[in-house]
Amino acid sequence: MDTEEEKALKERHHHWQIRLIVAIVMLTLSFVGLIVSDLWRDGAWLYWRVMVGIFALLSLFLSWYLRHKKQILSPATIWHELVQWFGLILAVYLVAIFVNTGLIGRFEAGLVALTLLALNTFITGIYVEGTFLVIGLLLGLFAAGAALLAEYLYTVMLPITIAVGVLLVWIVRKKHSHK
What we know:
179 residues, single chain, 6 helices, mainly alpha
């Protein structure tokens, strides 16, 4: 029979597993987005718009889960997060208006949506869950890479993505071992 301390340790381990799973899903979707952006330039606009919703759901799920289990003590409430993600959706809608009126192209709009998603994810990392901070930075690197390093995109970004994944695993393991 498990003692209370062993149960608490298992519970904390499970919380870090959930954090890691959400982070790896986000990293994978981000790298797939790079590939989509490179191979199907007009598809970047659709892909990153969809990712805004998926990232919002993943972020809100993780935040709810950690709050539900009392593992997160953040000054931001779930309502603050909802409003933050809703603001991002409105900003992307505004970009859609620019696309529909011909002010910017679909590829450029995809980069703008990616940049907005990077910023929102980064801010979520500051106020809610630190793993999102790293993912937001990576998304920003992806946006810069897609704009500046088109020829060497995979050569540069694949190792960076793997390094960020390894960094997140290391952070999770380090935090888990200290608790």
